[in-house]
Design a protein that fits this description.
This protein is an alpha+beta fold and 420 residues long. It folds into three domains: 80 residues; 151 residues, no CATH class; 157 residues, no CATH class. The protein is built from ten helices and seven strands. Strand 1 and strand 2 form a beta hairpin. The longest helix has 84 residues. The two termini are 21 Å apart.
Length: 420
């Protein structure tokens, strides 16, 4: 039998799990449960701070601090119980409504919606921006000769010699400065060339690194695209083969359907199936959760005198009835999901067995105990209004073989499969 989910079935399963979690997170009951859990955590933290404060208080204040710490501790325990009860109520409600849940969704899977489009991240490179041009190299301003001012007045008669000496010194300084300027000015073209050459080399290196980054990105994008193209080609092959009812394609399609069927957290199913195209029969084996996987608590309570949170268990009858109802609901839900999803009409009959894998207490070895077996015809099942049935009565109507006590793992005798 087909067991392991293929790529598309796993893809659909993960999407269904994410959608279930999203819907659950938005449910009013779950938001209230989460609110109570946060309040419980806050109350516990507040009580802990009060205990620490009491331990640090002086003798005069200690008694009052300890009373406050005890009060806050009690409030925290009460809040914790409320959170536990809210979570338990939500979980049990989920367990009790597995059949109701599937009636509100269309189990058909449009395989075209599984077609993928390659998603490429934005191209990034630290070499994208061109290098900034360096600051221009210019020749310094040409020095000009400024003759010292000639003396005037009385000094003009006696200062000519000194003025002449000053002019000579100024001319010598100017000559030396002008010679230096000429040297610097003559070097400017070479400095400009060196600067331009260095900048161009750096820019060329940047462009080469950018091109390398672009080539890597293009190769990675091509790899992503090729992977998606291969997956889409596989999908095309499945769609084409499903249209003509090929065995492997039908089995793959129902793997996707079962992968899309998400149960609440305490319930994990292991579904195997195989298709007989000649008989148009789908054989299904459902691995059910063990009885101990389902919560057995009815409620939680806090006893202040003992400072204890305790659990009130469901009665044995409540546990038996809840588990039996779950088993019956899972069987009907599986039949419903097959036929509601099978718009191409490949399946006329379903031979379904539901059982539990566990350790045989007599031999200590793994075994599977069958709890329900049903051979159902499409026309018989589609005439049933599942929104208004009692599941065990529906199974009787379908002439299913049902365990007298599923919770105790009381086995059934397996009948022959359906033919015709």
């Amino acid at each position: 039998m087909a067991k392991r989910r293929g790529f598309f079935a796993e893809l659909q399963h993960q999407a269904a799990v994410a959608e279930r979690d999203r819907q659950r997170a938005n449910a009013a009951a779950v938001r209230e449960m989460q609110k109570q859990q946060r309040e419980a955590e806050q109350a516990q933290a507040k009580a802990q701070r009060a205990r620490v404060a009491a331990s640090r208080a002086n003798d005069k204040e200690r008694a009052a601090a300890e009373r406050e710490a005890k009060k806050l501790h009690t409030e925290a325990q009460v809040a914790q119980v409320e959170a536990l009860n809210a979570a338990l109520e939500s979980t049990l409600a989920d367990v009790d409504s597995v059949l109701e849940w599937t009636l509100g969704v269309d189990d058909h899977v449009d395989l075209e919606e599984l077609r993928r489009v390659a998603e490429h991240p934005e191209f990034k490179s630290k070499h994208l921006a061109p290098l900034a041009s360096p600051a221009p190299v210019y020749a310094p301003p040409e020095p000009t000769f400024v003759e010292p001012a000639a003396p005037t007045g009385v000094g003009a008669m006696f200062g000519k010699k000194k003025h002449a000496q000053a002019v000579e010194v100024a001319r010598q300084e100017f000559t030396r400065a002008h010679a230096m300027w000429q040297t610097e000015a003559a070097a400017v073209p070479m400095r400009q060339l060196e600067q331009a050459t260095k900048h161009q080399a750096a820019e060329t290196e940047r462009q080469a690194k950018l091109a390398a980054d672009e080539a890597t990105y293009a190769a990675q994008s091509q790899e992503r695209q090729s992977k998606v193209d291969i997956e889409n080609a596989q999908l095309d092959a499945i769609i084409a083969a499903l249209a003509v009812g090929e065995k492997e394609a039908v089995e793959e399609y129902f793997s996707i359907v079962f992968g899309n069927s998400v149960y609440p957290d305490p319930i994990n199913l292991d579904i195997e199936h195989s298709y007989n195209p000649v008989e148009k029969e789908l054989e299904v084996a459902v691995g059910l959760p063990k009885p101990e996987d389902i919560p057995t608590a009815r409620a939680y309570k806090y006893t202040k005198a003992r400072d204890e949170i305790s659990e009130t268990a469901q009665t044995a009858k409540e546990q038996r009835d809840r588990y039996a109802a779950l088993v019956h609901a899972v069987v009907l839900r599986t039949l419903h999901e097959v036929w509601e999803s099978d718009r191409l009409g490949h399946v006329d009959t379903i031979a379904l067995t539901a059982g539990v894998e566990h350790i045989d207490p007599a031999t200590g070895r793994p075994t599977t105990t069958p709890l329900v077996a049903v051979a159902a015809h499409r026309g018989d099942f589609e005439s049933i209004d599942l929104a208004h049935v009692t599941p065990v009565e529906t199974l009787k109507h379908l002439k299913a073989v049902v365990s007298k006590n599923p919770h105790a793992l009381t086995p059934i005798d397996l009948p022959d499969g359906v033919r015709g």
